[in-house]
Amino acid sequence: MAIPPRILLGVSGGIAAYKAPEMVRRWRERGAEVRCAMTDNARRFVSPLALEVVTGHRVYGEEYLKPQGSGVEEHIELTEWADRLVLAPATANLLALLARGLAPNFLTTLALAWDGPVVVAPAMHPRMWNHPATQENVALLRARGVTLVGPVVGPLASGEIGMGRMADPLAIVGAGLEMSGLEVRAGVGPADDKSSLVGRRVLVSAGPTREPLDPVRFLGNRSSGKMGFALAAEAAKRGAIVDLVSGPVSLEEPPGVRRTRVETALEMRTAMLDRVVDAEVVFMTAAVADYRPLRVASEKLKKETGPPTVELVENPDILVELSKAPGRRLIVGFAAETEDVLRHGQTKLERKGCDLLVVNDVSRADIGFDSDDNEVTVLAKGAPPVVISRRPKRELAAALLDLVESDLVERDVVERELSTETESEVGA
Ligand code: CTP
Q1: Which residues contact ligand 1 via a Cβ below 6 A?
Q2: Domains in the chain with CATH codes
Q3: What percent of the chain stands above pLDDT 90?
């Protein structure tokens, strides 16, 4: 049997510290031995007792800087015991101390005495993360071979949003366990090339629909399909099995994506409902026409008959129907608004019954429809709005998928926990 890895977890003072016991539990489930060291600030967010219980060992802090009588310094002993060091969460301050080799407390003293592989999972306010000083420190650490996991875009403790949320605990757990493969991977962090979307079925709708008036004319809209195509491409890149249902657009299909072409809202509805049963994630980015002409002329409408009166009937709401489809999946709707964007978005989220609603302000000429850039606000039931600031649609797709992935992993964890609890109740 392989020798169980020995992981030394260093916890610094960020709100994400409360996730430390969960990470320890996951490592131990996989056979690792874990010990924890924490800063004084970390103790304000997670109790040392919780970490002692899950590690089955005392937790190291400032008191261990004083010699304990054995003559061996604890930080040296610990570095000799462990074979990998994981720092999670790592505050901006901890990154700065690590980068400069400063050691004002037990955790940083330990890190300075450490010469093995290091995984760092930063967590901080986006402005602190984006600060040139932090970015310089991160570059220094990377250059020294440190593996960085995250941060990711998401809602922060402050209610704000942006890049700065600690990576998903499971990604950090994975990085901690796979450190031995690091040399082989030539310095590429294991968590970076692992996605929770691997093998998952993702269904994306994109582009406009065309509602015919006669054989040559239609009612349509200005949707370019770029957002949906970018999401399909990014999901496929992350290992998902992607089905793309698209209205008429002039875009190349992304590699590895199965594309179905449709014209009308009714065709799109059929294609989406046929595929939703197997899907685990649905992105409904299509700009579906709300109405279609009641009558479609079989011959071209002629001018001599005068201006036609077009009677419209409402199209079915595909998103509402997808949200009601049997089975469990994450459904993401998209909304284009021109005024009072957030209020209309909230009402729409409730009306459509989807899990997330990505809202964008189409009154702005610099983003939206034809533009390569977009800026969106992501709404979810019972959670603060998440703003993803203006960026190319390709990058926006990656940020949206990060959000979806953290949501998926959270759901999986909750589900696993619920099933474990039920099992133990049955057993008791
Ligand atoms: N949608 C849909 N079927 C429709 C209309 C819209 O599935 N018949 C979906 C869109 O793909 C999008 C979401 O619903 O994901 C919101 O679309 P939007 O056009 O903003 O909303 P509407 O319901 O059309 O509301 P309104 O036009 O009044 O803003």
Answers
A1: 265, 284, 286, 288, 290, 315, 317-319, 333-336, 352
A2: 6-192 (3.40.50.1950), 196-300+308-411 (3.40.50.10300)
A3: 55
